[in-house]
Amino acid sequence: MKHTGRVAGTAPDGGSARQQELLEAAYAWVLERGWAGMSLRPLAEAIGSSPRVLLFLFGSKDGLVRALLARSRADQLAVLDAVGDSGDLATVGARVWAWLAAPEHRALLRLWLEAYTRSVGDAGDGPWAGFAARTVADWDALLARHQPPAHRDTAAGVAERALLLAVLRGALLDLLATGETARLDAAVGAHLAAL
Asked: Which UniProt keywords apply (predicted)?
């Protein structure tokens, strides 16, 4: 048996095994239903818990939302890892678009969009604050790794990444709204060909 270096009954990040189990169940629930109208009572009932247990484990509803956002971000960061470190900016842009356009990722991307929108409107220290900015920074860092080092930090390099990210995000928004994959594949392809 492999030794994990953690106490039995705890999750890898230090939370209890029960906390991780409920977090995964809650994450599956919000993936299916979205953030809108998330209330502790129906969520707790759906995942086999109670509002009191969720409040105990996560500290507050905001604490649960922060944990769910972190869980969602972990899925997004896994995408960044899957894209890999080889290829130029156009090649990586094509890989990212292929992932974004895949039908099996729609639930995660709808959840991301809702969280992103809420974050833009949360200028304070609420659970959504900073989520959108962290997302932009994550994707910008990925794209920067695929630019020549001498170009990466120039004004032109920064603008090139910002434009590619804007094209990908805009195409994703339209795809989620319309489902018109062929039209958006062509639009993204045209931009990538110009890089």
From this structure: DNA-binding
Which CATH number, 1.10.287, 3.30.1340, 1.25.40, 1.10.10, labels domain 1-59?
Answer: 1.10.10
Q: Note down pLDDT in tens along the chain; length 195 residues.
A: 222 332 233 344 557 899 999 999 999 999 988 888 788 999 999 999 999 999 999 999 999 999 999 898 888 888 877 887 788 999 999 999 999 999 999 999 998 999 999 899 876 788 888 999 999 999 999 999 999 999 999 999 999 999 999 999 999 999 999 999 999 999 999 999 999
The answer to whether the CB of 41 falls within 8 A of the CB of 87 is no
Contact between 64 and 54 (Cβ < 8 Å): yes
Task: Record the pTM.
Answer: 0.80
Q: What is the 3-state secondary structure (H, E, C) of the chain?
A: CCCCCCCCCECCCCCEHHHHHHHHHHHHHHHHHCCCCCCHHHHHHHCCCCHHHHHHHHCCHHHHHHHHHHHHHHHHHHHHHHHCCCCCHHHHHHHHHHHHHCHHHHHHHHHHHHHHHHHHCCCCCCCCCCHHHHHHHHHHHHHHCCCCHHHHCCHHHHHHHHHHHHHHHHHHHHHHHHCCHHHHHHHHHHHHHHC
